[in-house]
Specification:
- There is one protein chain.
- With about 140 residues, this protein is α+β, with helices and mostly antiparallel strands.
- The chain has one domain (about 1-140).
- The protein has three helices and six strands.
- The protein has helices at about 1-20, 30-35, 75-85; strands at about 40-45, 50-55, 95, 105, 115, 140.
- Strand 1 (about 40-45) and strand 2 form a beta hairpin.
- The radius of gyration is 16 Å and the shape is elongated.
- InterPro entries: LDL_receptor-like_sf, LDLR-related, LDLR_class-A_CS, LDrepeatLR_classA_rpt.
- Keywords: Disulfide bond, Glycoprotein, Membrane, Receptor, Repeat, Signal, Transmembrane, Transmembrane helix.
- It is a single-pass membrane protein.
- Its main location: membrane.
Length: about 140
């Protein structure tokens, strides 16, 4: 329960910090740059953000927009990615997010990072011991 609450409070903090200090990741473009790009090649983040990502970054399983809008309504894409990345390769150490079909390496469960939009990877962590350590840094929002 503590990790879940920590996850939520840090996301709120990161989102407010990003807006007040105009933090833009390497995967996002500023409003000026977005305005110069063709609309059919970009996805504008929702939630009051004035940034965008390229269409190729939308529904790719990595949250770029602070509110996660670039990964919302992507069930079909996430399910296809899950199938090609885990199921077809017969990798059994994975978890699937509850609401959006996104799959993650099991080492992402209860690691203090919300990788699922619904935060299900950080739910019910009390007493859970994650014995797997990820070799690659978290792909999503750090908390």
């Amino acid at each position: 329960m503590f990790r879940y609450l920590l996850c939520i409070s840090v996301i709120v903090y990161l989102a407010s910090t990003a807006r007040s200090h105009s933090i833009v990741s390497k995967r996002k473009y500023t409003a000026d740059m977005c305005d110069q790009m063709p609309e059919n090649r970009i996805f504008r983040c929702a939630g009051g953000e004035t940034v965008c990502v390229t269409k190729s970054r939308q529904c790719d399983g990595i949250i770029d927009c602070n509110d996660g809008s670039d990964e919302m309504d992507c069930d079909a894409e996430h399910e296809a990615d899950c199938k090609s990345s885990f199921i077809e390769k017969k990798i059994l150490d994975y978890i699937q997010c509850e609401s959006d079909n996104m799959c993650l390496d099991k080492c992402r469960r209860c690691d203090g990072v919300c990788d699922c939009l619904d935060k299900s990877d950080e739910a019910d962590c009390e007493g859970y011991v994650n014995t797997r350590k990820c070799q690659v840094p978290a792909r999503s929002r750090h908390v």
